[in-house]
Amino acid sequence: MGLKLAVCFFGMNRSLSHVVDSINKNIIEAIPEGIEYQIYGALMHTTVPFTNIRSEEFSCVPESNFENLMVPKSFELIEQSELDKVYKKPLMALGLNDIYSDDGASLMNMVREMYSVQTVWNLASESKPDYVLFLRPDLIYHDKVDFEKYFALIDQASGPMVITPSWQKWGGLNDRFGLANLSGAVIYGKRFDLFWKYVHLVGGYPQAEAILFTTLYLEGVDYSITANETASRVRAGGVTKVEDFSECGDYKNLESYLIEVGNRN
């Protein structure tokens, strides 16, 4: 049997109709011949319009075209209101710094994303893929992914590896998409569970990039390889956000801090 790739979509389907051509051209059609791939999805869903002040989205509804456009092997919708009922109170009880001053809305969005990642990984993990690509359905992908290069690097890994974007690290690791080997995907995929274990370490600045780095670092995942391919967020209605594709702050300070914490313990 040939090598297997699981393509795992997470997050919310804000704008798939606007970005699906870029997904097909730069991701699906870029998968090398001989690699067997399957598409999976676990996306947040809301039956009432949502508003996100930070992303300047007001009274928007998710698109409902994922199964038609991506034809997944397995797909699940996660009812956002039900998830919030279970996890918003425990999240707020952690007393994390509300760094965006939005009454915890950004913190809850982070939890929703990680839950979505974990749910799609649960769908895909049964197939025991050799490689796993985690990605969002609301990004327009500008560059053809060099899978052959990344697969070769992953094949050389002696342990778990996750490749993340080289841009917008914001002091941690970019969580917009990730390419992993199976053992790396196990860690990346269960970040939701590990969040509750590790978030106290970055409680003063709990943003997604810091959580991702902390999780991979403490779980012994190789995060040293980054991808230069870029993507831009496309908001509900089709507005593309202008992105900064520079590093935006590396993870060296956070890495040093975690090393220091480890030494103290």
SSE layout and pairing:
Blueprint: E1 4-12, H1 16-28, E2 36-45, E3 50-52, E4 57-60, H2 66-70, E5 74-79, H3 80-93, H4 105-125, E6 131-135, E7 139-141, H5 147-155, E8 162-165, E9 178-181, H6 182-189, H7 191-198, H8 208-218, E10 226-227, E11 231-233, H9 252-264
Parallel strand pairs: 1-2, 1-6, 2-5, 8-10
Antiparallel strand pairs: 3-4, 6-9, 7-11, 8-9
Explained architecture:
- The protein is α/β, with parallel strands linked by helices.
- It has a single domain, classed as Alpha-Beta Complex (Spore Coat Polysaccharide Biosynthesis Protein SpsA, Chain A).
- Helix content is 38%, strand content 20%.
- The protein has 9 helices and 11 strands.
- Strands 5-2-1-6-9-8-10 form a 7-stranded mixed sheet, sandwiched between helices. The protein has a two-stranded antiparallel sheet with strand order 3-4.
- A hairpin with a 4-residue loop joins strand 3 (50-52) and strand 4.
- The longest helix has 21 residues, at 105-125.
- It is globular.
- The mean pLDDT is 94.
Q: Could you give a short description of this structure?
A:
The chain is α/β, with parallel strands linked by helices. The protein has nine helices and eleven strands.
Overall residue-averaged pLDDT value: 94
By DSSP, the count of extended strands is: 11
CATH class reads Alpha Beta
Order of helices and strands: EHEEEHEHHEEHEEHHHEEH
Here the CATH topology equals Spore Coat Polysaccharide Biosynthesis Protein SpsA, Chain A
Radius of gyration computed on alpha carbons: 18 Å
CATH architecture verdict = Alpha-Beta Complex
How many domain modules?
A: 1
Given helix and strand content, the structural type is alpha/beta
Discrete helix count = 9
Helix content: 25-40%
Query: Spans of 5+ residues with little confidence (pLDDT < 50)?
Result: none
What strand order characterises the main sheet?
A: 5-2-1-6-9-8-10
Q: Please indicate the percent range of residues in DSSP E strands (runs of 2 or more).
A: 15-25%
Main sheet makeup: 7 strands, mixed
Distance between the first and last residues' Cα: 46 Å
